[in-house]
Amino acid sequence: RAHRRRYCSPECAQIASRKFHVDPAEMQQMVWEMPTVHIASAYGVSDKAIEKFCKKHQIKKPGRGYWAKIYAGQKIPDLHPVP
Length: 83
Fold this sequence. Notes:
The chain is mostly helical. The protein has helices spanning 10-17, 24-31, 36-43, 47-56, 66-71.
């Protein structure tokens, strides 16, 4: 029989498992407000984990170069999908 790890709290277990829980509607909002890398660092996961979450929940994200253009001051048409 395998030994199961025990943690002092659910928060410690979540940190150890590197999984994150977020409402898909909240994630939809966040991906259009900040780059995926920033979201990932806030949740303590990789940007690839955020990508996979978005793909699983069919959340559309900005295309490549979107944030670079924003930071460069270029005007970009509103691409944010209306929920």
